[in-house]
Amino acid sequence: MREPANIRAVIFDFDGVILDSVSLKTELFVRCYDNEPSMEQQAHIREYQARHGGVGRGEKFAYFERALFNREPTPDSLARLSRLYGDLLAAEIEACRYLPGALAFLDALHGKMPLHLVSGTLHGDLVRILDQRNLTRYFTAMIGSPTSKIDAFHRIITMEAYDPATVLAIGDSMTELEAANATGTQFIGIVAPNEENMFPPGITTYPDLAHLHADWQRLTTAVP
Predict the structure, then answer these.
(1) Which candidate, 102, 100, 114, places its Cα nearest to that of 156?
(2) What is the DSSP pairing of strand 205-206 with strand 186-190?
(3) Cβ burial, residue 103 (10 Å; 0-12/13-18/19+)
(4) pLDDT tens sequence across 55-89
């Protein structure tokens, strides 16, 4: 991370960065298939979700249908699975806690620079969740799927006329890193304790926003 003084805007991921919802969302993909997947197929779903957390649910279900169940997804089958996933998510997302330091970091940056949110969550569900938790007030823009993260990053940078080098993206999956690389933004990874670090060597990571915030404050108050 460059000096915070050189950062003009931040793009946050949501699940696994702000909200402790990654494990819930992973298990919802398994539960949408009820008793159909074998133990090996369930493990594959969990592994795929861990590596592609920022991809929209429709794209994930299409992949599972082809790769695990050897059938071609149809618009109806994808709509049914996505609707079931959304219903399960709506019933259980309120129980998810904020990750350490998330609200404090948002409070610290709010009003000092524009904050944006880009998520693999279906856009309508994302807006509803943010409204329910009174989080909408923090963000200049909020973009969910089916918009890809690369397209969302491009849209934000173009609409706000940012110099990409002055934008910091924070995410917990390779999807956000790929979007940052494609658009030329800075990137910091969040790797939860006891989770595998999937980021390549040289990528700065923190276990949560509390630790990132502590470094941010140290750099901000450092005497030259």
Answers:
(1) 114
(2) parallel
(3) middle
(4) 788 889 999 999 999 999 999 999 999 999 889 98
